[in-house]
């Protein structure tokens, strides 16, 4: 049985387009709670507004759409997962991917990722947010792994973007086909192939 929500949440003052840190934190906390309790299908700006005690105009001023807010919730949760180069690109990619898949499989915001990808295919605003903001920010760590490997001379610099695209494609195939659990054994094999030297 779901916990009852507060009947009279404290209304929080907005300071226009510039985000009030307290209001932002309250809205993101409310969004995480609504997502955990009601799932992606039950997630709405109305529900977040009621829970946070923030007006809908304030939320829409800071996040253009439901997808935009969900992407920020996802980003805040995923920020705990860091990809740090150790000198072995294949191993680094393998360990990072296993941790990422555990997040996608085991957390409400992680499980939302598949629905966000699907929504972006039919919503131009969600697609723009995914392509122009979400992906570049979320791929910084992984791009760093490839850049470090190139700096060591393990892979050519000019292949970083192609290998990154292969990495994304591998991950999204298992996300979109709901095979994260079944696909675990394929991670080390795929990462070795993606990290393999192409030098003769």
UniProtKB/TrEMBL annotation:
Residues 21-81 form the HTH tetR-type domain. It comes from the Bacteria. Pfam families: TetR_C_11, TetR_N. Keywords: DNA-binding, Transcription, Transcription regulation. The keyword Transcription applies. SUPFAM superfamilies: Homeodomain-like (SSF46689), Tetracyclin repressor-like, C-terminal domain (SSF48498). The keyword Transcription applies. This is TetR/AcrR family transcriptional regulator.
């Amino acid at each position: 049985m779901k916990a009852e929500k507060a009947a009279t949440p404290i209304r929080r003052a907005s300071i226009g387009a510039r985000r009030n840190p307290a209001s932002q934190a309250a809205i993101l906390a409310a969004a995480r709670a609504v997502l955990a309790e009601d799932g992606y299908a039950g997630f709405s700006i109305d529900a977040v507004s009621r829970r946070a005690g923030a007006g809908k105009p304030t939320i829409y001023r800071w996040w253009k759409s439901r997808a935009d807010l969900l992407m920020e919730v996802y980003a805040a949760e995923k920020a705990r997962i860091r990809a740090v180069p150790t000198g072995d690109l294949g191993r680094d990619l393998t360990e990072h991917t296993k941790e990422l898949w555990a997040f996608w499989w085991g957390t409400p915001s992680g499980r939302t990722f598949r629905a966000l990808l699907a929504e972006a295919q039919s919503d131009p605003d969600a697609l723009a947010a995914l392509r122009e903001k979400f992906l570049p920010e979320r791929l910084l760590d992984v791009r760093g792994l490839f850049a470090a490997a190139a700096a060591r001379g393990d892979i050519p610099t000019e292949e970083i973007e192609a290998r990154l695209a292969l990495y994304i494609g591998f991950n999204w195939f298992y996300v979109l086909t709901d095979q994260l659990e079944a696909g675990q054994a394929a991670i080390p094999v795929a990462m070795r192939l993606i990290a393999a030297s192409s030098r003769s």
